[in-house]
Design a protein that fits this description.
The chain is an alpha/beta fold. It is built from 12 helices and 10 strands. Helix 2 packs across helix 4, helix 5 runs parallel beside helix 6 and helix 10 runs antiparallel to helix 12. The longest helix has 18 residues. The chain is globular and about 60 Å long. The termini are close together. It binds 1,3-dihydroxyacetonephosphate.
């Protein structure tokens, strides 16, 4: 199947009632682990790339080149989409040029009229190249790569305005936040999610801040129209934990345990296991 836009996979997920994971990549190990997990689970997958993570990997061209090369060398057959996460207006345009299959333009921090106007322009630009577009209404709380959101609850009428522009998928703030949830977090506003679903019809909805949301709540959100769930922090946490264990057990001091291919292996394996666990929860296993 290879590299694709996220449109077909999300429309199929929306129709059949399951979710597709967007797992953010940071480097080669992350990308290899997520692609391997998707292939083993026979699940479609979306590789999320924030502008910060892209800069870390030296830029959009490197990201596209690395993913393309890995797809070929690893014989990946499941549908994979490279997706810009929380893109700026300029970033979204650059990714469309660089060969991404999907972009998110996050205009949620603009007044709604400006968000509408800018989203419209990105859609026009992306459509010519068959690229899927995610838009956002009501910013997601927490901080991700310097993008700080207040954690708003989206206005369903504003969601409808953006959905009607012809976006492929819509992210709406429903009390979700990036990173770890505070102990006193009140949970997702599933009532608002339902209103958004009612008003936007078959539009695939996106749940950001997938880390730490209880399984039943995520699955209920999927029944209410969520077709894409973004997970980033949880992979970082398992990677860090396994790497710390390796160092604390002084395995880097045994033989050639300092070799990065050995040092990064436990964290890499933990990412594969976590991605597969999420795919089970989202219901995307064997849907490729
Ligand atoms: P988490 O880091 O909370 O998993 O959120 C990821 C995300 O929403 C990426 O856009």
């Amino acid at each position: 199947m290879g590299l694709v836009s996220a449109k077909e996979m999300l429309e199929k997920a929306r129709k059949e009632g399951y979710g597709i994971g967007q797992f953010n990549i940071n480097n080669l190990e992350w990308t290899k682990a997520i692609l391997t997990a998707a292939e083993e689970a026979k699940s479609p997958v979306i590789l999320g790339v924030s502008e910060g993570a892209s800069r870390y990997m030296t830029g959009y061209d490197t990201v596209v080149g690395m993913v393309k090369g890995m797809m070929k060398n690893l014989d990946i057959t499941v549908p994979v989409s490279i997706h810009l996460d929380h893109g700026s207006f300029e970033g979204a345009k650059e990714c469309i040029e660089a060969g991404f299959g999907s972009v998110m333009f996050d205009g949620s921090h603009y007044p709604i009229d400006e968000n509408v106007q800018k989203t419209k322009e990105i859609i026009k630009y992306a459509k010519e190249k068959g690229i899927s577009v995610e838009a956002e209404v009501g910013s997601i709380g927490g901080e991700e790569d310097g993008v700080v959101g207040e954690g708003e609850v989206a206005d369903p009428k504003e969601c409808k305005r953006i959905a009607d522009l012809g976006v492929t998928m819509l992210a709406a703030g429903i009390g979700n936040i990036h990173g770890k949830y505070p102990k006193n977090w009140k949970g997702l506003r599933l009532d608002v999610l339902k209103e958004i679903q009612d008003i936007t019809g078959q539009m695939p909805l996106v749940l950001h801040g997938g880390t730490g949301i209880p399984t039943e709540m995520v699955q209920e959100a999927i029944t209410l129209g969520v077709s894409k769930i973004n997970v980033n922090t949880e992979l970082q946490l398992v990677f860090a934990e396994e790497t710390r264990k390796y160092i604390e057990a002084k395995k880097d001091l045994e033989g050639k345990g300092y070799d990065p291919r050995k040092l990064l292996l436990p964290g890499y394996k933990a990412i594969i296991a976590k991605v597969k666990e999420k795919m089970e929860i989202f219901g995307s296993v064997n849907k490729a």
